[in-house]
Design goal:
The chain is built from 1 helix and 11 strands. By secondary structure, the chain is mainly beta. Strands 2, 4, 5, 6, 9, 10 and 11 form a 7-stranded mixed beta sheet that branches. Strands 1-3-8-7 form a 4-stranded antiparallel beta sheet, with no helix packed on it.
């Protein structure tokens, strides 16, 4: 089990921004794809964004494309998810996870504890 630690969630007004952080070891960031997923109450966990283990490829669900940006920073051993233009539909617990490739949740074997994002006025 690989260790990943999320932070950066909170309460924000519609239209606002948050930056989520996923801290992991350098080994994890170099060798694993890192995905961001979210789960809202009563809904299934869904993929939000992913960055490949080489860092050269990034993926976004259509729901967030153009508003969210994923990036990997080796200096801080952290993968960030910059979230702009937030709407109430973005309210969920957000998780980061490590996997071999960017794909569905079932292919990610190690998960963080999650961080709550609430978008409300």
């Amino acid at each position: 089990q690989l260790q990943l630690v999320e932070s950066g969630g909170g309460l924000v007004q519609p239209g606002g921004s948050l930056r989520l952080s996923c801290a992991a070891s350098r080994f994890v960031l170099e060798h694993f794809a890192i995905g961001w997923f979210r789960q809202a109450p009563g809904k299934e966990r869904e993929g939000v964004s992913c960055i490949s283990n080489g860092g050269g490829n990034t993926y976004y669900t259509t729901l967030v494309k153009g508003r969210f940006t994923i990036s990997r920073h080796y200096a801080t051993n952290t993968v960030y998810l910059q979230m702009d233009g937030l709407t109430p539909n973005d309210t969920a617990v957000y998780y980061c996870a490590a996997g071999r490739v960017c794909s569905g949740p079932a292919d990610f074997g190690s998960w963080g504890q999650g961080t709550q994002v609430t978008v409300s006025s």
